[in-house]
Amino acid sequence: MDFVSVLSIFVMACFVGYYVVWSVTPALHTPLMAVTNAISSVIIVGALVASAEAIGATAKYLGLLAVVLASINIFGGFAVTERMLAMYKKKERK
């Protein structure tokens, strides 16, 4: 595939992702974050495999960057999910 095709697919995916995420109701936010965390874990595995097979140093550094960014996304997603689930817990009475 040429660069223009790949770029157009990326731009369309950005628009679809934007409209899907911002139109989610609060009740569905927690399951959506769980799925996002699962996708990010697949990205980490793919980045590790790709950087292990990489020949050049640039590809290895880009793989490292992908692992770092996906890790931040996973940990942030778990923190947001935990806060969302805490909103639904019953508060203790004294």
Automatic annotation (TrEMBL):
Signal peptide: none annotated. One of its GO terms (cellular component) is plasma membrane. The chain crosses the membrane at residues 6-25, 32-55, 61-81. It is an enzyme of class 7 (translocase). GO terms for biological process: NADPH regeneration. Its EC number is 7.1.1.1. Its main location: membrane. It catalyses: NAD(+) + NADPH + H(+)(in) = NADH + NADP(+) + H(+)(out). It is found in: Cell inner membrane. It is a multi-pass membrane protein. GO terms for molecular function: NADP binding; proton-translocating NAD(P)+ transhydrogenase activity. It holds the Pfam family PNTB_4TM. Keywords: Cell inner membrane, Cell membrane, Membrane, NAD, NADP, Translocase, Transmembrane, Transmembrane helix. The keyword GTP-binding does not apply. InterPro entries: NADP_transhyd_a_C (IPR024605). Residues 7-90 form the NAD(P) transhydrogenase alpha subunit C-terminal domain. The transhydrogenation between NADH and NADP is coupled to respiration and ATP hydrolysis and functions as a proton pump across the membrane. This is proton-translocating NAD(P)(+) transhydrogenase. The lineage of its organism: Bacteria, Pseudomonadati, Pseudomonadota, Alphaproteobacteria, Sphingomonadales.
